[in-house]
């Protein structure tokens, strides 16, 4: 947290190169969040610029109550969300099965793709299946598994309740399983 504070203070003091360092440090996180939400490289690049412009304009409001990474992630998430809303793109697929809620405590799905098929093939299938997920599920799944954010950090980024995040993770994994098992020749009882 002290590195965050030092970086924020340097940016706010207009120290040479401080904002460029902030962008370099968090551009990967920003890109992951926005790209998983909007899935359009041209829009993603433009929206990431918008994110860092907003970060620059509002950094004085950062109160160090959470890591800077979570705060910037939240800005990126909301910029992407507003973009999808403006374009009237569905952001959540609630599905028609709320019976899965009690299973949220057991988030592991037991499928080990690497053992069932080759790594390259598994990666291609997995990324194609992830791309089919609704924007919020895609983003939550990516933040949790690829960016390795905790559920609490994802809650800070998205503003969602932890139960909602767990629900999205559960539904995303369930959908991925449905997409991937037929490709792997697995039948579910």
From TrEMBL:
Family per record: Belongs to the sigma-70 factor family. ECF subfamily.
One Pfam match: Sigma70_r2
Superkingdom as given in the UniProt entry: Bacteria
Lineage of source species: Bacteria, Pseudomonadati, Pseudomonadota, Gammaproteobacteria, Lysobacterales
Protein name: Sigma-70 family RNA polymerase sigma factor
RNA polymerase sigma-70 region domain segment(s): 22-88
A GO molecular function held by the record: DNA binding
Span of domain RNA polymerase sigma factor 70 region 4 type: 125-176
Keywords, sorted A to Z: DNA-binding, Sigma factor, Transcription, Transcription regulation
GO terms, biological process: DNA-templated transcription initiation
Source organism of the structure: Luteibacter pinisoli
Signal peptide: none
């Amino acid at each position: 947290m002290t590195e965050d504070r030092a970086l924020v203070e340097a940016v706010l003091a207009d120290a040479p190169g401080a904002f460029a360092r902030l962008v370099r440090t968090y551009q990967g996180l920003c890109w992951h969040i926005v790209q998983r939400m909007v899935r359009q490289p041209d829009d993603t690049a433009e929206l990431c610029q918008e994110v860092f412009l907003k970060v620059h304009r509002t950094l004085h409001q950062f109160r160090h109550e959470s890591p800077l990474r979570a705060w910037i992630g939240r800005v990126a998430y909301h910029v992407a969300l507003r973009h999808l809303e403006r374009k009237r793109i569905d952001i959540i697929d609630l599905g028609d099965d709320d019976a899965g809620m009690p299973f949220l405590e057991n988030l592991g799905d037991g499928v080990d793709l690497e053992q069932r098929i080759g790594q390259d093939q598994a990666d291609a299938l997995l990324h194609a299946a992830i791309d089919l997920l609704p924007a919020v599920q895609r983003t939550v799944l990516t933040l949790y598994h690829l960016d390795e954010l905790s559920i609490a950090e994802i809650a800070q980024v998205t503003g969602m309740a932890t139960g909602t995040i767990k629900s999205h993770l559960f539904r995303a994994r369930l959908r991925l399983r449905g997409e991937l098992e037929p490709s792997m020749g697995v039948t579910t009882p």
